[in-house]
Design brief:
Layout lengths: L1 H7 L4 E2 L2 E2 L2 H5 L17 E6 L8 E7 L2 E7 L12 H4 L15 E2 L7 E2 L2 H19 L4 E5 L5 H15 L4 E3 L6 H11 L9 H5 L2 E5 L3 H4 L1 H8 L6 E5 L12 E3 L6 H14 L5 H7 E2 L1 H8 L4 H8 L3 H13 L3 E5 L1 H4 L4 H14 L9 E4 L6 H7 L14 H11 L14 H9 L5 E5 L3 H4 L3 H9 L3 E6 L12 E4 L8 E4 L4 E5 L12 H12 L11 H12 L12 H7 L2 E2 L28 E2 L18 E6 L16 H4 L7 E4 L1 H7 L6 E5 L4 E8 L7 E5 L25 E7 L2
Parallel strand pairs: 8-9, 8-16, 10-11, 10-14, 11-12, 13-22, 14-15, 16-17, 17-18, 23-27, 24-26
Antiparallel strand pairs: 1-2, 3-4, 4-5, 6-7, 6-18, 19-20, 20-21, 23-28, 24-27, 25-26, 25-28
Helix pairs in contact: 4-22, 5-22, 5-23, 6-16, 10-13, 10-14, 10-16
The structure holds ligand MGD (2 copies), iron/sulfur cluster and molybdenum atom.
One ligand MGD binds next to α15 and β23.
């Protein structure tokens, strides 16, 4: 706790100024977490945090079988006794006045009325069926999440696609992870982040690209701080982020200049012979073409395109060359881009050409976002057929059908539409019914006015959420009240492929049900209960998921049950053999074999594309968006419920502006200013910040107004939205 605080303190702010250690000691004022009373002996149980993909172990302290407090688990291999403020406060956000406690139906535009679960399920079936009968089976769709358990995701994906018979479903993981999924599949032959957190401690050079772990993954950052090798840290980010402040080298690349920069670095490594020829020959494919391709990426060209000087590019290449164990880490600054896949692959190329993969402390490592993004990637039945299979592959369909004891003909033979095509499908009237589960698109989708307009056009919008007041829940025709983290059982898969168990430690309020129970109820009312006769509990479904993973790269069929996962402190995939030591931390590719048929990884590259909406005379600033504090989670439906967390970040929307721009505009810290793009307009408080480059401004995504401004462009391969660069204007108030 002491160590985590030391690193967090510079990042935390209260409404009255910086957060200090003294504030923490003020009794009853800022005490983080519901610490258990010391006096009584307590029963405890283990769980895993339900916010970010780090997947910290939390010990729940029980009184009469109900959670009375929590502490970070000291012997959990992920967090070793540490947690960030969100984790400490995880129980408190469950108690809120706006919790959904009963199904709500809005008919005829009147106030929603409470109905029974029976009526809710009948209404769901009647309305969705009527739409399908009039407009075809694909006229209904679902949008899911990376924040439910794997068992729930699998249930939803299987029910919607095999039971309801629609092809179309996607998740908020499209906003987040789609780019990494495609980049890995194309380069490695399977969606497989190769690392383990021990790599944070074993590298002698760590390169973070478009990633701010200090704030977005504070406990991963703690693992970096524990690195005993005095590592060199490089941060590539247009902003001087909290992470960049702690780096040896900060490369303030122009937004979306990374691809050019990384090609320039590759050229320099090749020119100097700083490559691992043996590794390249034995384990990769396409290198010679890559050598020819990067020739035009001279230092002059790189400087012109990215704003990074020849000196800095040389230092970056030298730092990579001098490291013996170099790891590359990327997050949303790469993924949320109009050319995210090729940028991620430009990172993968660097790791491959220098042989920095498959050894401790190395890797081309995409850090995931939500607690179960990895579960969603494998089992949501959206971008893959259950278990990382392929809808278009008849052998895969046969295997899945046989494990699930169902008719193979029920499995669609092709992928459904990605998120943005679902939204466009609604606009064209092709999709009329939408079921939104555990995500808040009316806040988080790109170009919000469009999103809200589209959601408003549906014949039937069903929202399944913990709270009645989310931007999307308020638009729902039918609201299904869901239990949240702490109120249900299942498993998550964290960023290092570690499967962890979450537990029910308290009762959900009112009639709210676990998502798992809701899916079961709806499947029964739909008349396909027989298809799911073995899906009686999360743990039974886990047994099916094991079978679905068998012989895949993500094979975890060696895990006996939840008890085995818990006893081992989580288990990373692959885990094929129960005899294997479950506790050993494992990275992938130590044998140099990748998942393509020939066992070789691919060099993939392409001419960079122009920025879709560059700044101009009329729209002179480039807006970046992202995470604003360690205490805010996404659309704030959960974190805003904690008094403690609310004290740690500014309440009102704000925009960070470089001092010289502020001077030129005549604006001062705290001024209200209008920020306008071609899509929308908002008011925000000015934060003057020398961490910003001139001509760039930053707004956190947590405020409900931010996405009014964002520009809806998408990566051509992954369809991931490019949230992180659009052109805006700042209009000072008179
Ligand atoms: N506290 C907190 N933690 C979270 C979350 C949260 O909401 N709150 N959300 C979780 C989720 S789902 C996710 S996906 C992760 C996201 O974690 P991160 O990706 O680390 O967070 P972001 O702030 O979205 O973006 C990272 C950085 O990308 C930079 N960036 C923008 N454009 C570019 C570019 O063109 N090039 C480069 N190199 N950098 C660029 C931004 O300046 C920003 O500092 O965080 C997870 N953790
Ligand atoms: N401008 C901008 N926009 C962005 C981003 C950005 O960087 N910039 N980042 C994008 C990224 S990476 C992400 S991941 C998305 C996140 O965007 P969202 O997924 O829309 O954000 P959340 O607030 O996490 O929404 C989760 C919802 O599920 C509910 N919920 C929580 N637990 C449960 C549960 O167990 N069951 C059910 N049924 N409901 C539950 C919560 O109350 C909440 O309403 O935002 C994206 N939007
Ligand atoms: S770092 Fe992530 S997983 Fe760990 S306590 Fe914080 S939010 Fe939870
Ligand atoms: Mo995310």
């Amino acid at each position: 706790m002491t160590r985590v605080l030391d690193n967090l303190l510079p990042v935390l702010h209260t409404k009255d100024g910086p957060f200090t250690r003294e504030l923490l000691q003020e009794p009853g004022k800022f005490g983080l977490g519901m610490l258990p009373a010391k006096s009584e002996p307590q029963a405890t149980t283990q769980s895993v945090c339900g916010y970010c993909s780090t997947g910290c172990g939390l010990t729940l302290h029980l009184r009469n079988g109900e959670a009375s407090g929590l502490t970070p688990t000291t012997d959990y291999p992920v967090n070793l006794g540490m947690a960030c403020p969100k984790g400490w406060e995880a129980l408190r956000v469950l108690q809120a006045e706006d919790r959904a406690t009963s199904p709500l139906l809005r008919d005829g535009g009147r106030q929603p009325r409470e109905i029974s679960w029976d009526e809710a399920a009948n209404t769901f079936v009647k309305r969705m069926r009527a739409i399908q009968q009039r407009h075809g089976p694909d006229s209904v769709a679902f949008i899911s999440t990376g924040q439910m358990t794997t068992e729930e995701m699998a249930f939803l994906g299987a029910f919607a696609k095999f039971g309801m018979g629609t092809r179309h479903g996607d998740g908020n993981t499209r906003q987040c992870m789609a780019t990494s999924v495609v980049a890995y599949k194309q380069a490695f032959g399977f969606d497989a982040p190769p690392y383990t957190y021990a790599d944070f401690e074993e590298s002698d050079v760590l390169v973070f690209i478009g990633s701010n772990p200090c704030l977005a993954h504070p406990i991963m950052w703690e693992r970096v701080m524990r690195n005993p090798h005095d590592p060199k840290i490089v941060v590539i980010d247009p902003r001087m982020t909290e992470t960049a402040m702690r780096a040896d080298l900060h490369v303030a690349v122009r937004p979306k200049g990374d691809q050019v920069l990384l090609y320039g670095v590759a050229r320099l490594l090749i020119e100097n012979g700083w490559i691992n020829q043996d590794f390249i020959e034995a384990h990769t494919h396409g290198f010679q073409k890559f050598v020819d391709f990067v020739q035009p990426y001279s230092l002059e060209h790189v400087e012109q395109e990215t704003g990074i000087t020849a000196h800095a590019v040389r230092r970056l290449a030298e730092t990579i060359h001098q490291g013996e164990r170099v790891s590359f880490w990327w997050t949303m600054g790469v993924n949320q881009s109009h050319q995210g896949v090729r940028t991620a692959q430009a990172i993968i190329n660097l790791a491959l050409m220098t042989g920095n993969i498959g050894r401790p402390g190395t890797g081309a490592n995409s850090i995931t976002g939500q607690c179960n993004a990895m579960g969603s990637r494998l089992f949501s039945n959206t971008t893959n057929l259950l278990g990382g299979h392929d809808f278009a592959n008849s052998e895969h369909r046969r295997k899945v059908a046989s494990i699930l004891e169902m008719d193979e003909a029920l499995i669609p033979r092709e992928l459904g539409w990605p998120y943005h095509r679902i939204m466009e499908g609604i606009l064209r009237g092709e999709i009329r019914g939408l079921w939104v589960i555990c995500t808040n698109p009316a806040h988080s989708w790109i170009n919000q006015h469009f999103a809200q307009d589209v959601l408003g056009r549906l014949d039937f919008l069903v929202v399944q959420d913990m709270y009645t007041t989310t931007e999307t829940a308020r638009m729902a025709d039918l609201l299904l009240p869901a239990a949240g983290w702490g109120e249900k059982d299942g498993t998550f898969i964290n960023s290092e492929r570690r499967i962890g168990v979450i537990k029910k430690v308290t009762r959900a309020p009112g009639q709210a049900l676990a998502d798992f129970a809701i899916f079961r109820l709806l499947a029964h009312h739909w008349g396909c209960g027989d298809l799911f006769r073995r899906w009686t509990s999360p743990e039974n479904v886990f047994q099916l998921l094991k079978e679905l993973s068998r012989d895949q790269p993500c094979d975890f069929s060696g895990i006996a049950d939840y008890g085995a996962i818990e006893a081992a402190g989580g288990i990373q995939w692959p885990y094929r053999d129960a005899e294997q030591d479950a506790g050993t931390e494992r990275h992938l590719f130590s044998d140099g074999r990748f998942f393509h048929q020939d066992g070789k990884a691919r060099f993939l590259f392409e001419e960079p594309r122009p920025l879709p909406e560059p700044a101009s005379e009329e729209w002179p600033f480039t807006l970046l968006t992202g995470r604003g504090s360690a205490s805010q989670w996404h659309t704030q439906t959960r974190t805003a419920k904690s008094d403690v967390l609310r004290k740690l970040y500014p309440e009102d929307p704000y925009v960070e502006v470089n001092p010289s721009d502020a001077r030129e505009l005549g604006i001062l810290p705290g001024d209200l200013i209008t920020v306008r793009s071609q899509r929308g307009v908002l008011e925000a408080k000015v934060h003057v910040a020398s961490t910003m480059q001139p001509g760039q401004v930053f707004m956190p995504m947590h405020y409900d107004v931010t996405n009014r401004l964002t520009h809806p462009t998408f990566d051509p391969y992954s369809s991931q939205p490019a949230y992180k660069a659009c052109a805006v204007r700042l209009e000072p108030h008179a």
